[in-house]
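Notebook, bench 3.
Goal today: get a predicted structure for C-type cytochrome biogenesis protein CcsB from Nocardioides iriomotensis so we can plan the truncation constructs. The sequence was checked against the plasmid map this morning, with no discrepancies at the termini. Length recorded as 328 residues. Pasting the sequence as submitted so the record is complete.
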Amino acid sequence: MTTADFAAFSNNAVMFASIVYVLAFVAHVTEWATGRAVTVTEVTEVAEPEAALVGGSPSPAQAAPRPVDEDHEERVDKWGRIGLALTVVAVLLHGAALVTRGLGADPIRVPWGNMYEFTLAGSFGVGLMYLLLGRRYHLRWMGLPVTAFEVVVLMLAGLLLYVPAGPLVPALHSYWLVIHVAAAVVASGAFAVGAIAAVLFLVKDRAGRRGSLRPGGYLDRLPELNALDRLSYRLHAFGFPIWTFAALVAGPIWAEYAWGRYWNWDPKEVWAFITWVVYAAYLHARATAGWRGKAAAVIALVGFATLLFNFVGINFFFGGGSLHSYAG
């Protein structure tokens, strides 16, 4: 295959990944929509008048009441499994698109040389993080917001950020590019999944306080608030040291290699540091001051907002005034 073939394959893989993400989203919507009917487990007991009259032992049906909605719950679970399987397929296609994007450049390179490619890599990190942690922490309930996130991000990337595959600019010819961006992608994936958990915590907490939590609805069937809070904290605690390495170690080393200085007070460098400070404040407050629940979730989302601004906003608001303008 030629580089043009690989580039075309990448574009098609992104398209098909987007379609499969949409199908996974629809499957999860169906899962939660049909699951609303399973609110309270109904139990039927088979009465045996003769046994009752003579004081006989209860039948097996009486001793072990059977839920009447077992078949319904199986159908709900089936839709959830379909959504998860489709998400696995979509992430594989997403990864293939990322790899062939690099193979589609001449010369062959890592696939993160501009904003379009950074967006592909970052959103792939979110999907991969969800799948890797999903089995350990039983995160299938997060499939709905994760697939929605992937659909929106890939759509915006294709419509607003797409550029043809091409060679790297001189500043990117360094193996520190691989280390710096790979670490940032992993950390950003953890922060994004943690932010989703924080958003769900706030929404469920607000619905509970207002008395609008529908029995059997999506929010009602999410994990308890304490579990959402702990999950968000663990994800941020996992991502923070990786972000520290990416932003404050690998990034400055790469800057010295590319521009002759470890720190240039470039807008992207400054906002990477601001992101680090906010997440450090979140983890410190959560671990030492006992800030849990709503306050901690708000700080976590402020940190994710600074991450998004560093990722996208710098290029739109500062443009050519940034040493990182090649990422636009």
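The chain has two domains: 1-40+67-167, 169-328. Residues 169-328 form one domain.
Flagging this for group meeting.
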